Amino acid sequence: MELTFLFVEWLGKPAWMWLGFLGIVIALLTFDLGVLHRDNREIEVKESLLLSSLYISLGLAFGGLVWWQLGPEPAMNYVTGFVVEKTLALDNVFVIALIFSFFAVPRLYQHRVLFWGILGVIVLRAIMIGVGATLVAQFSWLLYIFAAFLIVTGIKMLVMKDAEPDLANNPLIRFMRRRLNVTDEHYGEKFFIRKAHPDTGKMTLFITPLFMALVLVEVADVIFAVDSVPAIFAITTDPFIVYTSNIFAILGLRALYFALAAMIHRFRYLKPALAIVLIFIGSKVFVADLLGLEKFPAALSLGLTFAIIATGVVWSLVKSRTEIERVA
Predict the structure, then answer these.
(1) Would you say residue 57 lies in a domain?
(2) Can you tell me where the transmembrane regions are (predicted)?
(3) 32, 115, 152, 240: which could form a disulfide with 13 (CB 3.0–4.6 Å)?
């Protein structure tokens, strides 16, 4: 049997590397849904932290494979992208928690929404990254646009306070309620339900609040991808590194959600740290040019990124603990 197709290059890497990565992702999702969460149940904080540790370990282990196959610089770029994407995902957790609260999604079924949401993210990110990689390859000056966008975004995050999303007046929710048959009641794990229409009495297909929550989770990811995709392209333009670091970070988000949703208030100073990271990542594109470097050193980029985020995490935990002790 001919296996030459495995060595055909696609987006700069042989097909076997892409197929191997997709095989790992499919195996993890199958294990998650088919073994760990075959039945709907609530996920406790302890289990969430254990699963998160597993996903983070697997993500870093994949970075070791990247080092083995492609070398130290791609591996350090992968880990930098993984850390940045994982940190950006914290904002996503806050929004997802608001969506679940707004639609009163029972904890029993939140994992189901997140699982199907992750599948949608894998496809959507592939499309966005594929388009981005093609455009950057054709128009290299787009990197400077991405870099400038990151700097502006980081500055806005530092100086502007976030307003809580007004889901009651969200145009997408209003559109679904106006144009589709929507039921206000939950029907277990079902996204769709057939029941008698209140006006005609005919059996009609309705969407449930669980499906509306899923749609908003997918849209939220597209919005957050506007930050994360330019950020990773400012780190590296290798589509394989860009996509794998994004997906491994997102795979663990579902597991981490249940722990973070319970203690997101303790990471108050992480957002300013993330803003500084975005400014740094955007600035290093211009700094490399000013210093006459082909690329900003990957090791320095990873070290500074990790140091900034770690400082934000530690400072948040210390300050929140001090405030809790003061109140007690």
Answers:
(1) yes
(2) 15-36, 48-68, 88-106, 113-135, 141-159, 203-225, 240-260, 272-292, 298-318
(3) 240
Side chain identity, residue 313: V
Residues 203 and 201: their CA atoms lie apart, in Å, by 7
Distance CA 131, CA 75 (A): 23
What is the per-residue pLDDT across 234-281, written as a single tens digit (0 to 9) for each?
Answer: 888 898 999 999 888 888 777 777 777 666 666 777 788 888 888 888
Give the model confidence (pLDDT) of 196-244 as tens digits: 887 777 888 999 999 999 999 888 888 777 778 888 888 888 989 999 9
How many structural domains comprise the chain? 1
**In this structure, is residue 263 part of a structural domain?**
yes
- Any domain includes 12: yes
How distant, in Å, are the alpha carbons of 116, 180, 256, 280 from that of 251? 11, 31, 9, 26
Cα 244 from Cα 80, distance rounded (Å): 12
* Stated pTM of the model: 0.84
Supply the range of the domain harboring residue 68: 4-158+226-327
Burial group, residue 175, by CB count within 10 angstroms (0-12, 13-18, 19+): exposed
Q: What residue type is assigned to position 5 of the chain?
A: F
Residue 281 corresponds to which tokens in the numbers above? 């990542």
Determine whether 288 is exposed, middle or buried from the number of CB atoms within 10 Å of its CB (0-12, 13-18, 19+): middle
Which is it for the CA torsion 312, 288, 282, 299, positive or negative? negative
Q: Give the per-residue pLDDT at 42.
A: 66
In a domain, 213, yes or no: no
Contacts of 167 (CB under 8 A, 6+ apart): 98, 99, 102, 173, 216
